Amino acid sequence: MKKRFIAHAFVTIFACIGLIFATIVTFTVLTGCGKPNDEVVVSPAPQQTEAPEITSAVTPEAAPTPVSTDTPTPTPEPALFIPGDSSYTTSYDVKKGEYNPAETLTTRAFTAVKTDEGVLLSWRNFGTKDEVFTVKKDNKVIYTGSLTNFLDNTGKAADVYTLGYHEGNETRSEEAVAAADIYREFTLNYPWDTYLPNGRHSKHTANDMSVGDLDGDGQLEIVLKWDAEDSQDNSKDGWTGTTILDAYKLDFNTGDAKLMWRIDLGINIRSGAHYTQFQVWDYDGDGVAEVLCKTADGTTTYNSALEETGHVGAVSMSTLDSHLTRKKQEYDYRNHVEGPGRVLSGPEYLTAFDGRTGEIIDTVNYIPSRGEENSKGVANMSSWGDNYGNRVDRFLAATAYIDEGSPAAIFCRGYYARTSLTAWKLVDRKLTLAWIFDAPGNSIYAGQGNHGLSVNDVDGDGLDEIIYGSLVLNNDGTVLNCTGLGHGDAMHVSDFNNDGRLEVFQVHESAGAKYHIELHDAETGEIIWGVNTKKDTGRGMAADIDPRYEGAEMWAAVNGNTFDCNGNVIYTNKKPSVNFSIFWDGDLLTELFDYSNTTTYIPQVQKWDYEKQKADVLLSAEGTTVNNGTKGNACLVADILGDWREEIILRCTEDPAKIRIYTTPYTTEYTAPCLLTERAYREGIAWQNSAYNQPANISVPLKDYILK
Fold first, then answer.
1. pTM given for the model
2. pLDDT tens digits, 495-531
3. Torsions phi, psi of 706, nearest 5?
4. Which of 261, 324, 326, 256 is closest to 288 using CA atoms?
5. pLDDT per residue over 607-632, tens digit each?
6. Percent helix, percent strand, percent coil in the chain, to nearest 5
7. Degrees (nearest 5) of the Cα angle 195, 201, 207?
8. Computed from CA positions of residues 593, 597, 603, 608, in that sequence, does the dihedral angle turn out positive or negative?
9. What whole-number distance in Å separates Cα of residue 347 and Cα of residue 125?
């Protein structure tokens, strides 16, 4: 308690002197030349909770390597915590414990798809047990009951169905037209090419997506990131085309896709998995989602007719259109000689865009900057882990409720060495800084981040913490815990061992880490079990795939075994695919999303046969492909249509302008609330597009989420 008191005392002191240091803080952060001015103290870890017993039909083999251990407790080194403008809280007329949602869904997303057995119909439940629904076809009732799915054995493609239900005292209905398959295909507005200084034309591919209610109609629209086909990893030089964000209204009944607006991020934002992390949420509580992302000079907005409506910074892309000349122009900050294509100078911004129009709401400087610049405008980037432009441009983003009312957008820079997170609120159409956490390279909190992050209320106070790999920040931006195990590529957060608390399953990269596969308590950082593989362990998965064992099962790329939630080996040299989890077939287990092989990259949904210890393919999405090479990501995996099972959005192989939304062909006896109504899951959909995409998880085991 003493350490926790000290940590809160420091926060209070900083808040009191925040206005005095406002000018200093601004200079420090924007130039990157400041030094840490105080300590952040890790809160103490309570005693480890007792692990549940295994109830199993098979006696597990005891793992020789996993051991329980206390949380590492190194002496804290300096880290910089800077409170922002706390006065914004007075702008919110909300009570304690009240939170504005991402959106207020007003439809049941009634969906009909043709399967081998007929037409499967499904729809949403918003948490009401024994709610009664009626389904009609040809004006005849074919179903009445409380389930949220029904198979019409006589159904065929193009059949029309009506769903009836009560919303309070009001009777409502929705219509669904049966798709010819378990997917509906949409043709999008394919972007223009980018003309590069090396003479090439760069085309685009449909990459990450997110969802939100962009126009306040109570339905979801999608935001799609078009990556340049020559997008680059930060570790490599090379020219890329521009990155484009499109917003679409999709009609699953007809396959119609209507472009709402477009944002071309411009030539000063390089294209690749680590550069553009975008957030879609209603940040000001007006019922309409905004879109936030990093921008630069040349970022340009367009309406649905692709007419320019505004730009960020000094110029628009009409001025910077590089097909006019292959020579470097004013406001073109790309390297043209050494390290061609990299953008290591010039202004960096954070911009909020209006969901209805895509137009600019507000723009601020991106905090922190690359580093202190010399007289030639070249930044010293070495604090991030190198000085050639790789680790300085590792960005992450998320959305978190750091206080009551509307959430904050969390934008981050760095995780190999220097580590910085900022929280921004949108108040009265202005981006307002709530806090900054900035750990320099010599801090024990530096180098602890992942290629992804998670947002969860780990301490049960109703507010969110940011799980930044091995480092967890409290809702106020101070350190809650840190395992000290360093950087990793994959992480999953839920109650994996049924103890009523959240756990973090994580893999780690450094060969010198104490553990490379481990499970720890999300609130305290206390290691529950761990395995040392002695090498970079790049993938890991936690999912309930075997009902014979309590909680979830866990496995990783390097080690060949599968573990139960207590670290016992349950399969020796046998494990499922290590990519993505998904709720698909309607039982209380979790399915897996992966792809066929590194030649064909055909997306698959797999079911783990725990008795035969092999994967069965439930879906092979021929005609589509995955994104990001061997990472094998869908554009999006989320519960956006029908009942609580998740949909998959994929890009088509033959036509780059087309995408498909796949939905399950299976019936289920279970009813559950729409997953988007569970806050941690909804936040997971918002951060799913960040860097190495990871699946969103609900906070409790699926068996506890089902309406009983």
1. 0.90
2. 999 999 999 999 999 999 999 999 999 999 999 999 9
3. -65, 140
4. 261
5. 999 999 999 999 999 999 999 999 99
6. 10, 35, 55
7. 100
8. negative
9. 47
